[in-house]
Amino acid sequence: MSSNYNNLPNGYLETIRKGLTAVRSFRSGLSTGVGGRDEQIKRLKEALTSADAVVIGAGAGLSTAAGLTYSGERFEKYFGDFAARFGISDIYSGGFYPFPDDETRWAWWARHIYFNRYTDAPKPVYKKLLALVQEKDYFVITTNVDHQFQRAGFDKRRLFYTQGDYGLFQSVNPTNQKTYDNEEWVMLAMKAQGFVRDENGIYQIPQSGVNMRIPTELIPKCPDDGSDVTTNLRADDSFVEDEGWHKASSAYADFIRRHENLRTLYLEVGVGANTPVIIKYPFWAMTAENPKSIYACLNYDGAFCPKQIEKQSICIDGDADCIINLLK
Asked: Which of 48, 88, 156, 240 has the fewest CB atoms within 10 Å, counting from its CB?
């Protein structure tokens, strides 16, 4: 990490520390909130209206609600050839498959990135969410890497993508702590496989089918030192936290500090059990610290809160798209 970042607050580490503190302090059990569904919807509408600030914490469930599913019909449509040849069952597991050569592996990743980063979500859930908060002082922290917040029109200065971005490559050289935009490469690799743009400019599979390999000369390399590259996704300690990442982390930390004693709505949407220490647990902790704040959890089969903050919490079980429609 560059020494230039040392003077910036690290919102990522700070939020994890809050999360770890929350795990140790909430010991009286969990609650699904106070009141029925209609009452909780009403309370959330009121909280959105009265809040001085809204902090949105988003997980994979939000993108699933927006139609960015990693299995089923969408997977079969764009990755059916990979499924048939290699037995891959979904987009997520395909990212870990030991492909026989780099030409095939990077053909997979071109599709993986394109359909989850460079196309809009099938449902306008992100745009509906923006409509709820765009007149508010808001900030977004998300573990999603599909960039759908910015595609929907959220202010990029108010976004912190903690776990990376499908739209970036990083070098495998650990001394190189830069990231590289991959959009141009992705488009070339999609075209090389035989995908054809439709009337809306979206790559589709023609009747003649597509290839499962790209030319060797299209295998991406680092433009600075010619080394191999990989996706900028947090999988281990090799993840590159570049200048943009640190600025976003600092902006998040600053936003939290400026609003810690105000009427702040911590709106958690679609956060599962994989990384609760980044969003869910810190939101619990910050709600407990500020009696003016409200914690709202929108989740399918997973809306709950600690009993200690039950009276400050709104827990709504269901599909995020349906819930957001009720809030409009």
From this structure: 156
CA 67: distance to chain centroid?
14
The alpha carbon dihedral of 51, 57, 63, 65 has a sign of: negative
What pLDDT digit, counting tens, does each position of 137-158 carry?
Answer: 999 999 999 999 999 999 999 9
Q: Report if pTM > 0.85.
A: yes
Is the Cα dihedral 34, 37, 39, 42 positive or negative? positive
Tracing tokens 């449509």 back to the chain, one arrives at 77
Domain 8-65+122-162+241-327 has CATH 3.40.50.300: no
- Residue 86 class from Cβ within 10 Å (0-12 exposed, 13-18 middle, 19+ buried)? middle
All structural domains of the chain with their residue ranges: 8-65+122-162+241-327, 73-120+183-219
Residue 238: φ, ψ to 5°? -90, -5
184: its two tokens: 């141009």
Alpha-carbon distance of 298 to 304, in angstroms, equals 9
Tokens of 240: 């590159």
Q: Check if the beta carbon of residue 116 is closer than 8 Å to that of residue 64.
A: no
